[in-house]
Amino acid sequence: MAEFVQVIDPGHGGHDPGAVANGLREKDLTLKIALYTRDYIHELYEGVKVYLTREKDVFVSLNERAAFANRLNADHFCSIHINAGGGKGFESYIYNGSYSSKTKTQALRNVLHDTIVAETKLMNRGKKEANLAVLRETKMPAVLTENGFIDNKDDADFLKSDANLRKIALAHAHGLAKAHGWKPKAKPTSAAKPVPKASAGEKVFYRVVAGSFADRENAEKRVRELEAKGVESFIDVHKS
Ligand SMILES: [Zn+2]
Question: Which of 107, 213, 224, 239, by CA, is between 20 and 30 Å from 68?
Answer without folding.
Answer: 107
